[in-house]
Amino acid sequence: MRRTKHPLATRVTNLEPSGIRKVFEIANAHPEYINLSIGEPDFDMPMFLKEQGIKAILAGRNRYTPTRGIPELCRLIADQLTAEGIRFGDLFVTAGATGGLLLSIQALVGPGDEVIVPDPYFVAYRNLVYMAGGTPVGADTYPDFQIKAGAVEFLITERTRALILNSPNNPTGAIYERAELEKLVALADHHGFYIISDEVYTPFIYEGNYTSLGLLTDDAIIVNSFSKSAAMTGWRLGYVSGPAGVIDRMAMLQQYAYASTNSVAQYTALRAFEVDYSEQRGNYRRKRDLCYDMLSTRYELHKSRGSFYFFPKAPDGNATAFFERARAAGVLIIPGKDFSRRDTHFRISFAVADDLLEQGMEILLHLA
Ligand code: PLP
């Protein structure tokens, strides 16, 4: 007789299923829908980068690399960060920003520890905290989606180990104010927790004064990636910089978790900083303005200053009901509950072809 298996570890039983996955599957099954749910650029990786990848394969770059990444790429990233004025002790190459987030939370958070996560949030954050046995603590940023140091201070306890910031923000498009970031750095210094700063949307800033955490302190853990900047989401390549002691331990975690990142992706990325995305940024700024001009006539929304998302308030403040109505009308959006403890808003992406975007906006206006 076979004995019933013991339950799975709480690190997986605590995970919250992603509603975004569900929308992704609906989009795949129904290509006729206008899909405003997508979380990646709508342009392809540039040809010279594709060729660089092919050359790397043919040149035999198919073996293990050092855990931290090939030295040429680490040097290039260091030069790039230094040129931007970002302060850091050390860095290494990760499997996308997601890899950098996983490793930083694994390095900082243990069972019972708390991580402050501004709400709305990128879907992975809370679950990455659960995977480390920690507890995410939401810092409400409604209605303007700006993080306020005063609100964060109120949430700090003896168990606070980290605060995760994401500016430009997914899903709200907010860019955090420098003055608040300075206060948050002071709080982190005073209470001894780390700030993890997810900066993957910095290529897509349309207005406002953006400040990287790395300009304010050498003590933040800064997560970045080639996914959005070089339209390489499928290549899974990113990097993380921060204080040497933390980075060193994170690199050890990477070694035991998956040895290193993909070799061909790293050799390809040797030319990724050459990608000029200013034209795409201009296109996205135009699309953003088009969405804002149309939606603001009927919806309550904040103008996105970066990323490629809007996070308007749903009619009646019921985003799941609105998701169903939008779907019935042929438009896919993502209900706010996938990014928040509330379900009052919804996310749309404007990284979509102009004609589809306009049709999608018309339908949303009719539904308001
Ligand atoms: N961080 C944010 C805020 C994101 O929106 C995403 C992807 O959508 C990621 C991280 C993941 O990036 P990567 O593809 O580099 O793992």
How would you describe this structure to a colleague?
The mean pLDDT is 96. The strands form three sheets. The chain has a seven-stranded mixed β-sheet with strand order 2-8-7-6-5-3-4, sandwiched between helices. It has a three-stranded antiparallel β-sheet with strand order 9-12-11. It has a two-stranded parallel sheet with strand order 1-10. Strand 5 (160-166), helix 8 (178-191) and strand 6 form a beta-alpha-beta unit. The protein has helices spanning 10-13, 19-29, 47-58, 71-83, 96-108, 124-131, 149-153, 178-191, 244-258, 263-269, 278-295, 319-328, 354-367; strands at 34-35, 90-94, 114-119, 135-140, 160-166, 194-198, 221-225, 238-242, 309-310, 331-332, 334-335, 346-349. The protein contains 13 helices and twelve strands. With 368 residues, it is α/β, with parallel strands linked by helices. It has two domains: 10-45 and 277-367, Aspartate Aminotransferase, domain 1 (Alpha-Beta Complex); 63-274, Aspartate Aminotransferase, domain 2, CATH 3.40.640.10. The structure holds pyridoxal-5'-phosphate.
Structure, briefly:
This protein is of the alpha/beta class. Helices cover 39% and strands 14% of the residues.
| Extended strand count | 12
Q: Tell me the series of helices and strands, N- to C-terminal.
A: HHEHHEHEHEHEHEEEHHHEHEEEH
| Helical fraction | 25-40%
CATH topology of the largest domain: Aspartate Aminotransferase, domain 2
Helix/sheet category: alpha/beta
Strand content: 5-15%
Quote the distance from N terminus to C terminus: 59 Å
CATH C-level of the largest domain: Alpha Beta
Count of domain modules = 2
Which ranges are low-confidence, i.e. pLDDT below 50, for 5 or more consecutive residues?
A: none
- Shape type: globular
- Please tell me how large the radius of gyration is: 21 Å
Mean pLDDT across all amino acids:
96
CATH superfamily of the largest domain: Type I PLP-dependent aspartate aminotransferase-like (Major domain)
In the CATH hierarchy, the architecture of the largest domain is: 3-Layer(aba) Sandwich
The number of helical segments is 13
The major beta sheet can be summarized as: 7 strands, mixed
